Amino acid sequence: xxxxxxxxxxxxxxxxxxxxxxxxxxxxxxxxxxxxxxxxxxxxxxxxxxxxxxxxxxxxxxxxxxxxxxxxxxxxxxxxxxxxxxxxxxxxxxxxxxxxxxxxxxxxxxxxxxxxxxxxxxxxxxxxxxxxxxxxxxxxxxxxxxxxxxxxxxxxxxxxxxxxxxxxxxxxxxxxxxxxxxxxxxxxxxxxxxxxxxxxxxxxxxxxxxxxxxxxxxxxxxxxxxxxxxxxxxxxxxxxxxxxxxxxxxxxxxxxxxxxxxxxxxxxxxxxxxxxxxxxxxxxxxxxxxxxxxxxxxxxxxxxxxxxxxxxxxxxxxxxxxxxxxxxxxxxxxxxxxxxx
Length: 341
What we know:
GO terms for molecular function: FAD binding; monooxygenase activity. The chain is α/β, with parallel strands linked by helices. The protein has ten helices and 17 strands.
């Protein structure tokens, strides 16, 4: 395919990554984005080493390191603050590169470098695809492209978890990813530097409580202090998407449009960026792209499901397992992702 006309639907992490990866191959794309303020607000995001590796491939390694805060250690505690797992991050990622925490708006700003003029604020409809040789659905969990290309695909499936995300002040730890595991409740604090943390709290439940904050009253400090200071909280239901086929005709799905999971492995952005890079290598061989990406996406799906099941074991059983074989299991879950995509 010589000088193909390409449409990318969705100007989030996957879509912007694809635009940059295609441009590096000499292919320019039009981008549609339904959100008129894609850079507004947001909380934080953890970018594990394979995500930073992908950003480096796209030319943004220095920018993301400058904007982010490196994470040097992962720590899992029970809901009273007693240790379950404590590992240097390089033990998990084998030294392939840094892992960073960053504000979501900063990541989007970096990825929009050189592309802002190419983004049209528009909601995709099927007639938009007609003039294009390739349509890339990068429009997230509620993908309009997926509904058009795969009308019989199952809708996003709630995994039974509700989540609250926010950025809080008053967190003294630096370079640390830390979770507290309760009975059906989890709290994550991720160092952003300067006394700030990106916080993620979740609850195993089908419907939200009237007030989520009391759920963490029996957790130790600094959890209670972070919860008490929470403002601009983003609440949502965690949903899963997975397709065994992500291509049909001239269309392909990437990022959350193709695969979205419980965030316990923090692989959403990483897989989206890897998708973008691999897709650019395979235009116009979409089936070749799918053969490379689906097994990796399936691995992450299966690992996230196993980790969710482990979280929901009786606390005494769960904590005993994590203290005894947790470090080995934690590292094994990420081992295949050390290889380039």
